[in-house]
Amino acid sequence: MNRLTMFVRTALAASHNPMPVFRFYCSPSSSVPAPANNKLFVAGLSWSVDERSLLDAFSNFGEVTEVRIMYDKATGRSRGFGFVYFAKDDDAQNAKDAMDGKALLGRPLRISFALEKVRGAPIVVPCIRGSEDADGFPGAKHWALLLHVICCLNGLISGCSVLLEADPEQSELLNRACFGRLVITSEKDKQWYELGLEEAFYLSNALRCLNIVGNDGTVKSNAELWDYMSSRIEMFPELYKAYCHLRMKNWVVRSGSQYGVDYVAYHHHPALVHSEYAVLVLSERNANSNARLRLWSDMYCTIRLAGGVAKTLLVLHVQGNGSGTDCAACLKNFEIEERTIRRWIPEQSREEKGVKSHSRT
């Protein structure tokens, strides 16, 4: 059965199911040039890049009429991408050819024409309504659901992680859906990914596209996986609930161990933007998890660390409401309370106060 036939049958089956609604689109081919215009989309910008430095980098290719870097409204930080407008289409084409993949202040740029919405080989895929991100692009939820449709992955338990062997097609979907960390090997036709226990169980239990094999060589059921993972990580039920909560927001979730938090969360693909949130998961069931923010000094240091890498601290309080943690089904009764914590800057507060008092007078 070819892929297109499989997708059509899936779409027809979905028409009788009130859950996701499918629409079809075709991503442009990387071998067929996108329609040229004078507006370039520039992603992968370093936090230190401002509009002046971006203008200087592209002005050598022709007359630049406008440069815009997109900033987060709440924090004022760069979102890691922007737009460069040229007076002539040919100048924009030359700039794209020369600067795509080149480093600017330490980070490689990814450049495309602004009308080029999806990059990659031509492939007809089902786009699930409601899975797009804020800009209308297929988000992480879209690619995760696509994994559920066309893939059957096999993983191997290895301590507190799961090793996954993927062919090129599966590797492409894993990269687009942002699952796992690529492990560099000498194999050319196969690639290996290392999954955390939360995302491995998410692929197995929620998306049902991953079979996990234990050390005894047998495929483990979700109940067996739950018992094993809960024994390896004391807070696994709360961490998995938090992981699902963030994924359902169409966010990309990565490990945050290098920043001293549980996760980091992205609104867009990590290749395009920086992560926006440093996520801490607290549990009413586990007193040790709450000890991380018990003292004011702990809170202050965590906020300073998150602010130093341009991230907002997001604290997720997982409440069990008296439910147990014997199986994944128990998590349906769990609730999550979100709190964003930002550093208080006295100078900004005084400025805001001055503006308000001036408006009253």
TrEMBL record:
Enzyme Commission designation: 4.6.1.16
Q: Which residues cross the membrane?
A: none
Swiss-Prot/TrEMBL keywords: RNA-binding
| Pfam families per record | RRM_1, tRNA_int_endo, tRNA_int_endo_N
* Gene Ontology annotations for the cellular component aspect, listed alphabetically: cytoplasm; tRNA-intron endonuclease complex
GO function terms (MF aspect): RNA binding; tRNA-intron lyase activity
- Any one biological process term the GO annotation gives: tRNA-type intron splice site recognition and cleavage
Which chemical reaction does it catalyze?
pretRNA = a 3'-half-tRNA molecule with a 5'-OH end + a 5'-half-tRNA molecule with a 2',3'-cyclic phosphate end + an intron with a 2',3'-cyclic phosphate and a 5'-hydroxyl terminus
Q: Which residues form the RRM domain?
A: 38-116
Family classification: Belongs to the tRNA-intron endonuclease family.
Q: Under which name does UniProt file this protein?
A: tRNA-intron lyase
Q: Which organism is it from?
A: Carnegiea gigantea
